[in-house]
Structures are given as structure tokens and as C-alpha cells.
Amino acid sequence: MWDTLQVTHEGKSDVKRSRKHTLIREYELLRMNHGESISDFQKRFTHLINHLTDLSRKFEEEELNLKVL
């Protein structure tokens, strides 16, 4: 029983780590698209940051401000 729980948890950890790396890469490449409104960009940015925060990624306020600028 314990082995099954451990394997299941490790699998979830791998998926979580992979998702976190994918989102970090998306964050690094984040740019405002041609013709995208500021409001739409802000929604996309906030959505991405919220997902990364849920995955335990920490951000300094200054870093987020510079990213938007």
C-alpha cells in the first residue's frame, strides 16, 4: 500500500515540476502580442502568475512590475 502511495505521489510531483517549468518558460517569453489590448495582456499575465504562485513560485513585486513594463 505504501509503495503505491509513494509512486502515485512521485508521479504527481513529476507532473507538477514539469508544469512549473513550462509555465516559467512561458513567463520568461511573455510579451504583449501585436494588436492585444492592455486589458487582455493583463489578464493573461495575471492568469500565468496565479498558476505559478499555486505551484510555489515566489515573485518579488519589483520583478513583476519590470516584467509588465
UniProtKB/TrEMBL annotation:
<protein>
    <submittedName>
        <fullName>Uncharacterized protein</fullName>
    </submittedName>
</protein>
<dbReference type="Pfam" id="PF14223">
    <property type="entry name" value="Retrotran_gag_2"/>
</dbReference>
